[in-house]
Each structure stands twice: as C-alpha cells, then as structure tokens.
Amino acid sequence: SPLDDLQRLRDAEVKTREIIQKYQAAMREMMVRFEILDQDLNLKKHRNPIHHLESRIKKPASIFEKLERYGKEPTLENLERYIMDVAGVRVICSYIHDVYNLLELLQKQDDLEIVEIKDYINNPKLNGYRSLHVIVRIPVYFLDKKELIPVEVQLRTIAMDFWASLEHDLKYKSVSEVQGIDSYDELKDCSRIIEDVESRMQILARLLRGSVSIFRKRQADFPACLFLALVLEILREAGGLLVLANDGGALRLFDAHEEEVQVMDEHVSHHDHRHRRLGREQDVQHFGYRKAVSL
Predict the structure, then answer these.
(1) What pTM, to 2 d.p., does this model score?
(2) What residues pair up with 136 in beta bridges, in sequence order?
(3) Catalytic residue among 35, 65, 77, 152
(4) Start-end of H helices in 71-182
(5) How far apart are alpha carbons 254 and 263 in whole angstroms?
(6) Rounded distance between C-alpha atoms, residue 41 and residue 245, angstroms
(7) pLDDT in tens, 101-129
(8) 3-state secondary structure labels for all residues of 175-194
(9) All residues at 6 or more sequence positions from 98 whose CB lies less than 8 Å from its CB, including other chains
C-alpha cells in the first residue's frame, strides 16, 4: 500500500543517514589523528610534514556505480560490505619521504587496522598517476557500541596533487587528441618531469636541513669515513646520484641524468650552474680515497 511504501522510504532514509554519519565520524577521527601527528612532529622534530589535509564522503551515485562495476546489487548492505572508500582523507605532504614516514607512524598505531596498501609512487599507474593509497579501519565509539569503520587515506606530495588535480579536469574533456597533441602521453611525460623535480627538491631540502654545515668543515677536521657515510646517505635518498668530491676544494653533485646540479665550497658562496657531462662510470675522490661508482 502507499502507506507501507512511504514507511519503507522513511526507514531507508534513516538507515542511509545512520550509515553516512558513521563514515563522517570515521573521517573526522582520521583527520584528527593526522593533525595530532603533525603537531607532535613540529614539537619534537621542528618541522611540519603535512602541508594540508582534505576530506570527502563519496557521493551516492559514485558508490552505486562502483557496486555495479563489482557486479553487486546497489543496496546499503553491499555498500558497507564492499565499498572501502566511502570516507576519504587526503594528506598532502611536502616531500616523498614524508609520505612514507607518515605511513610508518600509522602502522605503529595498534588500534588501527591496515587493510590494504597500494603504492602508486613506486609503481605509478599507466597514465602517470602517483600517490600512496592506504585503506584503514579506525575505531569509532557510539552511544551503545564501537565499530571499525573503513577510511581510504591518500598520501601524496604537493607536486603529485598538482598533477592529479589537472589530470582529473582534463580526463573529462571529450577530445583526447587536439591538433596533433596526445594528451595521454603528455600527461605521462609531465608526471615524469614532476617526479624528477621532486627528487631534486628532496635532496636540496635534506642538504639545507643540516648537511651544508657539515660539508663546509675543513678537510683536516673531517674524517673521510664520516664524509663517505654522509655521501652514501645522500646516494640512498637520490636513488642514483653521482658524487664528485674534493674537486679543487669543492663538492660537486651530479644527478642521474649526468648534469651538475649543485656546487659547494667553503670559500665559495654562490652556486655554479655549469652543466658538465660525465661517463657512466666516474672516479669519485673522498679526501684521498678513490672509488669507481657506476649507475
């Protein structure tokens, strides 16, 4: 009867509000956790790895479209059972190492259940998309119960977010090729360029956070073993950086494209931006120690 139908609609509305409220609560709980981590890192490490936070609740149309792709009936029960990203939190970081550091901190929170990790930073999507996706279940306390509610956490850098935002806009354009330009290949190429810039900025940030003062110590006061340890750490961060030290009193850094990116000397206050080609193997002198390094 019409009255029964109306009652069913009201019951469905109440149930839908109840479900959405749970995901909103879980989303807010997750946001607060990241805010606390950022404040604590600022207090103890004197830096804020999180540039900003974003959050969203997936729209009903997107939820039911996803259920259809999964081959499931568009019901509220299936929503809770199969859709893990109804609530989403996006964490925008300054540098790539901040992304992975935050993931490690999440893994240490023993009341969080890490359901799934998808690393699109080390394994980008075919279109060039890069981000770290983590599905977590976070405990939320209600009047009469506690529930573990899933939240999708996306961790990415400012540069990754810049690319993703533009790609999201461009992918809705109806024409993929305009005047001989293949937008798909262009987006992939832009992603590679951004990745290279990020790597260089991360190296620069690490040097500026304290390495410069070490590099400028006098040769007699700086044991070669300590210098070598520092160089190896930079090599690890750079993922393929050639280093040429003690070149006329200066320290010269070369990236994986064999272009000089930075010159530092205790007697020189400016950067020498001359580009210089190297072979695939280069002798590296560490204050009297020589070692062949190959990329």
Answers:
(1) 0.66
(2) 114, 151
(3) 152
(4) 76-82, 96-107, 158-170
(5) 9
(6) 34
(7) 999 999 999 999 999 999 999 999 988 89
(8) CCEECCEEHHHHHHHHHHHH
(9) 49, 50, 157
